[in-house]
Amino acid sequence: MSSFVWMKVLESTPERYDRGIAMLSGGRIAQVYGRIAAIAAAPGRRVLDIGCGTGAVSFACAERGALVTGIDINAEMLEVARAKPVPEGGTIAFLQLAAAEIEDRFEKTSLDAVVSCLAFSEMSEEEQDYALEIARRRLVPGGVIVIADEAAPATPLGRLLHRLRRLPVVLATYLLTQTSTRPVTGLAGRMRAAGFVDVSQERMLSDAFVIVRGTRP
């Protein structure tokens, strides 16, 4: 796997999205979904999945008994998500909603966990800050946030190789969709600035993916 920017192409054909992301990750993206769910989900926990797409993280959380609400602005992706069977023990509701609308739809301290995968890389830094702030207010004290996304490798050599591998994919994606994504940077610091504590991060998938977590005090 060289990059997840092809997700922009796959979003234009939602029925192929899950298969495409699995191929791009060498079949390892399910490890990320499972890790997010292991941190955030438990029986009866109220989980919000921001940018849920076709629902992979939402379903991983529901399999652990969580009560999940998945939001996304792409109606076709949500259609694919709604067509999937809901795991026993959990519930899922899918809403066509942007991250900026969370404030209007969810009450303060109404969630136990907020998760997001491959969505923050599509946001500007200002949008990321806003989403983190709104998420913190919607979480109960002790609630957790878990953000997973593409990230540049930690070492200089790794970053150089990553850019070289990524460049043709970025160019091709832009030519096809006129959009692109970028690796997230400084997300742990943004979480702390938004008021989260116990912030930590872990690398996955050959150091090209990061999972950042924090807790509302």
UniProtKB/TrEMBL annotation:
Q: Does the keyword Transferase apply?
A: yes
| InterPro entries, per the entry | Methyltransf_25, SAM-dependent_MTases_sf
Pfam families assigned: Methyltransf_25
SUPFAM superfamilies tied to this protein: S-adenosyl-L-methionine-dependent methyltransferases
The answer to whether the entry has keyword Zinc-finger is no
**UniProt keywords, alphabetically:** Methyltransferase, Transferase
Report domain Methyltransferase positions.
47-143
> Which example biological process does GO assign this protein?
methylation
| One example GO MF annotation | methyltransferase activity
State the PANTHER family in the record. Answer: METHYLTRANSFERASE (PTHR43591)
Q: What is this protein called?
A: Demethylmenaquinone methyltransferase / 2-methoxy-6-polyprenyl-1,4-benzoquinol methylase
> Upper taxonomic classification of the species?
Bacteria, Pseudomonadati, Pseudomonadota, Alphaproteobacteria, Rhodobacterales
